[in-house]
Amino acid sequence: MGSADSKLNFRKAVIQLTTKTQPVEATDDAFWDQFWADTATSVQDVFALVPAAEIRAVREESPSNLATLCYKAVEKLVQGAESGCHTEKERQIVLNCCRLLTRILPYIFEDPDWRGFFWSTVPGAGRGGGDEDDENARPLAESLLLAVADLLFCPDFTVQSHRKSTVDTAEDIHSIDSCEYIWEAGVGFAHSPQPNYIHDLNRTELLKLLLTCFSEAMYLPPSSDSSNANPWVQFFCSTENRHALPLFTSLLNIVCAYDPVGYGIPYNHLLFSDYREPLVEEAAQVLIVTLDYDSSTSSSPTVDGTTTGTAMDDVDPPGPDNLFVNYLSRIHREEDFQFILKGVARLLSNPLVQTYLPNSAKKIQFHQELLVLFWKLCDFNKKFLFFVLKSSDVLDILVPILYFLNDARADQSRVGLMHIGVFILLLLSGERNFGVRLNKPYSVRVPMDIPVFTGTHADLLIIVFHKIITSGHQRLQPLFDCLLTIVVNVSPYLKSLSMVAANKLLHLLEAFSTTWFLFSAVQNHHLVFFLLEVFNNIIQYQFDGNSNLVYAVIRKRNVFHQLANLPTDSQSIQKGLQRKKKTPEPISRTNSQDGVSMEGSRPAAPAEPGTLKTSLVATPGIDKLTEKSQVSEDGTMRSLEPESLQPLPEGNPPSAVNDGEPWSGEASQPRRDRRRLSSASSSGQWTPTPDWVMSWKSKLPLQTIMRLLQVLVPQVEKICIDKGLTDESEILKFLQHGTLVGLLPVPHPILIRKYQANSGTAMWFRTYMWGVIYLRNVDPPIWYDTDVKLFEIQRV
Question: pTM of the prediction?
Answer without folding.
Answer: 0.89
